[in-house]
Design brief:
Blueprint lengths: L3 H4 L9 H10 L14 E8 L12 E4 L9 E5 L2 E2 L3 H14 L11 E6 L5 H13 L1 H8 L1 H4 L33 E2 L1 H4 L9 E4 L8 H19 L3 H10 L3 H12 L10 H16 L44 E4 L2 E7 L2 E5 L5 E5 L15 H12 L17
Antiparallel strand pairs: 1-3, 1-4, 1-5, 2-3, 5-7, 6-7, 8-9, 9-10, 10-11
Helix pairs in contact: 4-8
Length: 400
């Protein structure tokens, strides 16, 4: 199949190959860190604060101003680096930023990694995105919950990107928001981003720790390798058939190998992300276990619903007392409770029609409060109830 570089017109990469190759021969690495994808191309952006004296660097990196940072903050942007070059570049980076400054990696800073996708086919890109969505929690377990809640690194499961995966490269990437944790906007460009032919991973927190960054890049390389080992059609069928924890774990370990961490990835992490993928691709055609949330589709399908049977709203039901996730039928529409007075409504065509502000229901009559004397009288009246015998049709002998 045709790779993207042969199908699309991407800008030329500037790497100064001979200059850096000569320098690497002069400065060989001592005990180099293991690299999963030595020939994969990466672009790295490192944000750092407290750099009043600036940075002098003539290899691998360029310095840029970043208005989202404070206290003399700056962003160092690498040239396209082969996997085996990343450790060389990080050595240069650490020496440069600590030479005349005391750098600070505050919560405002982060590390963004661009994975070259020009050498992938469209089918492999869709496989990579599909696998990422299944294991998005894996990447956020590495990056931490602070990044997961950042408005500059929004998880896909919190977004409303709900077009089918099969339409992924037919236009949606040009509308991709640049602050998504996995940013496809850099693949073909948007009105906010240039066309790089890369997929950006924005998860990692600010750091100059070489091991953390190299491990992060190795996880991305493993994701890319897994995407190249299958086809989109086969992977989609695998996902559709997945319904046990063991099947999730098998795919997880096969994808991330030695980086698969079952101590932190629990059953809910697998189920919720697989459910999100199924919801994204097949919409409401599948049965669900987890209720839909107000800003995300978070479903756990149990199978296809050929003839869904949904309970109607009970007469006299008090809406505030219904549990979140309650599904009712109201005015020929299915509604799922997501908040106290908010419901997601779906038509028969399984398309969202918006959020209903409220559902009307006939409330039960108010309870009657009896006085102690009235309560005692009521109990006494029950005791006096006797069987009335009809003289015309007397009961059988056994009943006398």
């Amino acid at each position: 199949m045709t790779i993207l570089a042969e199908k699309y017109d991407f800008p030329q990469l500037i790497v100064r190959k001979k200059f850096h190759s000569d320098w690497e021969k002069q400065k060989p690495l001592i005990d180099p860190y293991p690299v999963v994808g030595p020939n994969d191309l990466f672009g790295i952006e490192v944000e750092v604060e407290n750099m009043p004296n600036g940075v002098l660097v003539d290899k691998y990196w360029d310095c840029k101003q970043d208005n989202s940072l404070r206290n003399h903050g700056m962003e160092l942007v690498s040239i396209p680096l082969r996997g085996y070059q990343v450790e060389y570049a990080l050595n240069v980076l650490v020496d440069a930023i600590y030479a005349h400054n005391n750098p600070i990696f505050s919560p405002r800073t982060s590390v963004h990694v661009h994975l070259n996708a020009r050498d992938l086919t469209e089918d492999e890109v869709m496989c990579l995105v599909l696998l990422y969505c299944i294991f998005e929690k894996h990447f956020f377990h590495i990056a931490g919950t602070r990044r997961e809640s950042s408005i500059f690194c929004v998880p896909l499961y919190k977004t409303q990107y709900l077009w089918p995966f099969s339409d992924l490269l037919q236009g949606p990437t040009t509308r991709w928001h640049k602050y998504s944790a996995l940013n496809l906007g850099t693949l073909f460009g948007t009105d906010q981003l240039p066309k790089y032919g890369t997929i950006e991973f924005r998860h990692l927190y600010g750091t100059s720790n070489k091991k953390i960054i190299l491990d992060w890049i190795n996880n991305i390389s493993l994701l890319k390798q897994a995407a190249k080992r299958t086809t989109y059609k086969e992977l989609l069928q695998t996902v559709r058939d997945m319904n046990t924890t063991s099947s999730y774990i098998a795919l997880y370990e096969n994808t991330f190998k030695e980086y698969a961490n079952l101590r932190i990835m629990d059953k809910y992490d697998f189920e919720s992300c697989v459910s999100f993928v199924k919801r994204w691709e097949w919409g409401s055609k599948l049965n669900t276990k987890y209720p839909v949330q107000e800003i995300s589709a978070y479903y756990y399908p149990q199978g296809i619903k050929k003839e869904p049977v949904t309970p109607t709203l009970p007469k006299g039901a008090i809406l505030d007392q219904l549990a979140y996730g309650t599904i009712v039928k109201y005015q020929n529409e299915l509604a799922v409770k997501v908040n106290t007075n908010k419901w997601f409504a779906e038509t028969k065509n399984n398309k969202y029609t918006g959020i209903l502000d409220e559902l009307l229901a006939e409330e039960p009559p108010p309870p009657v409060h009896l006085t102690p004397a009235q309560t005692a009288k009521k109990k006494k009246a029950k005791k006096k109830v006797t069987t009335q015998v009809n003289p015309i049709n007397p009961p059988a002998h056994e009943e006398w």
